[in-house]
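User: Can you recover a sequence for this backbone? Please restate the input before giving your answer.

Assistant: Of course. Working from this structure:
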């Protein structure tokens, strides 16, 4: 049985990202991916 504490409210695009891989991402892993991509984008913007 799923407990309310085990659920997370996410936007539709985040939900899609979570389920892109064969093994779904955890919320923590998704946050890591987003932060890493933001860092890469910021570095590219600075270099331009």
């Amino acid at each position: 049985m799923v407990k309310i504490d085990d659920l997370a409210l996410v936007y539709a695009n985040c939900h899609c990202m979570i389920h892109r891989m064969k093994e779904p991402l955890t919320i923590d892993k998704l946050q890591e991916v987003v932060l890493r991509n933001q860092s890469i984008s910021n570095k590219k913007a600075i270099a331009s």
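That completes the design. Helices lie at 12-18, 27-47.
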